[in-house]
């Protein structure tokens, strides 16, 4: 047994020494991390800002009773579309018809008195030349004739007023639009002592969206315009996209109408009014919405995929830059707004830079990487 054990020990020792004698060149090399990249290529890019606001109707009319009376009938259908001049309510016209008849009778009487006074003045004019009457009597006749004409004019105005009141008994739509529920019912006494609201009409196509933006953001935009970094979108050409509550875009594009000249002192914000078509009445006044508004245009804009952005513990945005020797470098960037699946980059990158867009979880700063053959140069699409 001892003779057999000795050769086995020698063999094991030889194998151990042989293993310890391997050189580093014989060890298998660690493969390089594969990444996909994009090459930064500036391209025309619109600068969008997503702002919040509320939908408002461009025209709103409060239908009110202009005369006192009892409502006889509601003519329109609640919630329907009405046109300007359509009859909405009927107020009892009997008192106003009686007032008109009384005014017409008073007019006929005053016209008769005016005729009598005029004829007497004409007769006195013929007698004054022959000294048949005194000058005082002639002057009195002329004054009575003129007074009678003034009475006729006053009563004609009363007749016109009576006709207006009779017309106001038929309440019509002052504008075209969607009318809401009736605020009174048949038999209600309206306009007694105060103007009574009857219904409300709102124009819903198109609709306005009043947005709010801070004066700081507006000042930054103006500074960029003056420095030549950005170009201003032409008047009535700034496009707007409405974002619904579920995050989906409204299918019909809108436009920016104007920016208010006043700043709200309590919030430091400015109102921007946009307009959207609303043929199907999907957008209702009072709704809170968000709008992606095109406010500027950069001829040499830079954007990167959102997945290429990393953030450090302080929240600073960074990208992984591939240098000339294929080594990774962390590069801080200044981000603007997000557009679709990309971030607009305001600083930190230049034309020709190559950034990692896939494989970021394995790439480490200072290490070499292998660029995937599928990597393609950046092709930025313009929104214009």
Proportion of residues in β-strands: 35-45%
Largest sheet, spatial ordering of strands:
2-11-15-14-13-16
Q: Total helix count?
A: 4
- How confident is the prediction overall: mean pLDDT? 80
- In whole angstroms, the N-to-C terminal distance is 93 Å
The number of strands is 24
Question: Would you identify the CATH architecture of the largest domain?
Answer: Beta Barrel
Order of H and E elements:
HEEEEEEHHEEEEEHEEEEEEEEEEEEE
CATH superfamily name of the largest domain?
A: Efflux pump adaptor protein, beta barrel domain
What is the multimeric organization of the chains shown? single chain
Question: In brief, what are we looking at here?
Answer:
The chain is an alpha+beta fold.
Description:
- The chain is α+β, with helices and mostly antiparallel strands and 384 residues long.
- The protein has four domains: 33-45 and 302-371, conserved putative lor/sdh protein from methanococcus maripaludis s2 fold (Beta Barrel); 48-58 and 205-297, Elongation Factor Tu (Ef-tu), domain 3 (Beta Barrel), CATH 2.40.30.170; 66-91 and 170-202, OB fold (Dihydrolipoamide Acetyltransferase, E2P), CATH 2.40.50; 93-168, Helix Hairpins (Orthogonal Bundle).
- The chain is built from four helices and 24 strands.
- It has helices spanning 2-20, 94-128, 135-168, 215-227, and strands at 33-39, 43-56, 60-64, 69-74, 81-82, 87-91, 170-172, 177-179, 189-190, 197-202, 207-214, 231-232, 239-243, 254-264, 269-276, 288-301, 303-305, 310-311, 317-322, 328-332, 334-339, 342-347, 354-358, 369-371.
- The strands form six sheets. Strands 2-11-15-14-13-16 form a six-stranded antiparallel beta barrel.
- The longest helix has 35 residues, at 94-128.
- The model is unreliable at 1-24 and 375-384 (pLDDT under 50).
């Amino acid at each position: 047994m001892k003779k057999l054990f000795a050769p086995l020990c020698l063999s094991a020792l030889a194998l151990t020494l042989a293993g310890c004698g391997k050189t580093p060149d014989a060890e298998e090399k660690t493969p390089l991390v594969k990444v996909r990249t994009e090459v930064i290529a500036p391209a025309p890019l619109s600068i969008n800002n997503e702002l919040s606001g509320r939908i408002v109707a461009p025209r709103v009319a409060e239908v009110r009773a202009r005369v006192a009376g009892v409502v006889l009938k509601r003519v329109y259908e609640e919630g329907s579309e009405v046109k300007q001049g359509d009859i909405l309510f009927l107020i009892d016209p009997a008192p106003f018809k009686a007032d008109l008849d009384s005014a017409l009778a008073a007019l006929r009487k005053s016209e008769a008195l005016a005729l009598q006074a005029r004829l007497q003045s004409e007769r006195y004019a013929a007698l004054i030349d022959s000294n048949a009457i005194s000058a005082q009597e002639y002057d009195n006749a002329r004054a009575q004739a003129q007074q009678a004409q003034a009475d006729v004019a006053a009563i004609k105005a009363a007749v016109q007023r009576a006709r207006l009141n009779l017309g106001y008994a038929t309440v019509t739509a002052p504008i075209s639009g969607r009318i809401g529920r009736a605020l009174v019912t048949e038999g209600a006494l309206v306009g007694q002592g105060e103007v009574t609201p009857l219904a409300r009409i709102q124009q819903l196509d198109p609709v306005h969206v009043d947005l709010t933006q801070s004066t700081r953001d507006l000042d930054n935009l103006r500074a960029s315009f003056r420095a030549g970094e950005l170009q201003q979108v032409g008047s009535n050409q700034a496009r707007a996209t409405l974002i619904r509550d579920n995050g989906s875009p409204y299918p019909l594009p809108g436009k920016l109408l104007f920016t208010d000249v006043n700043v709200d002192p309590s919030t430091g914000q400015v109102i921007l009014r946009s307009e959207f078509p609303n043929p199907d009445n999907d957008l209702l006044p009072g709704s809170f919405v968000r709008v992606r508004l095109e406010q500027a245009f950069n001829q040499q804009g830079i954007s990167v995929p959102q997945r290429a952005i990393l953030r450090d513990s302080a929240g600073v945005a960074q990208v992984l830059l591939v240098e000339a020797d294929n080594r990774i470098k962390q590069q801080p960037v200044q981000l603007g707004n997000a557009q679709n699946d990309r971030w607009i980059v305001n600083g930190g990158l230049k034309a020709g830079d190559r950034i990692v867009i896939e494989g970021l979880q394995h790439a480490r700063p200072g290490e070499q990487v292998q660029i995937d053959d599928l990597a393609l140069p950046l092709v930025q699409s313009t929104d214009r």
